[in-house]
TrEMBL record:
The chain crosses the membrane at residues 24-44, 56-76. It comes from the Bacteria. The keyword Membrane applies. Keywords: Membrane, Transmembrane, Transmembrane helix. It comes from Dactylosporangium siamense. This is DUF2530 domain-containing protein.
Length: 99
């Protein structure tokens, strides 16, 4: 009978791998949601302003504008992700990669 505590099973300790998913799909999904919010509120701008919620449209536009550099940052992050994985794999095998 083995006792499981944390990540130790039968005296063998293994650390879980950190998650490193591609981030571009998340950034594009967030940007898409802000764009949808802008398009939905566009015909109701005047009604929202009359009801005291005129800043909602501006917030959605700001979400789109901030999402663009955020998405570009995630493109660079994912590009570097491939390099990080290759580097960590070379450490595991004892090989040296590089230029």
């Amino acid at each position: 009978m083995s006792v499981i505590t944390g990540s130790t099973v039968c005296g063998v300790t293994s650390q879980p791998k950190p998650l490193d998913p591609p981030m571009v799909p998340f950034a594009l999904a967030g940007l898409g949601l802000w764009i949808i919010a802008v398009l939905v509120m566009l015909p109701f701008r005047d009604e929202l302003a009359d009801a005291g919620h005129g800043n909602w449209f501006g917030i959605a536009v700001a979400g789109v504008l901030w999402g663009i550099p955020g998405g570009l940052t995630m493109v660079v992050h994912d590009r570097n992700r491939k390099r990080r994985r290759a580097t960590s794999d070379s450490f595991k095998t004892g090989e040296r990669g590089g230029a």
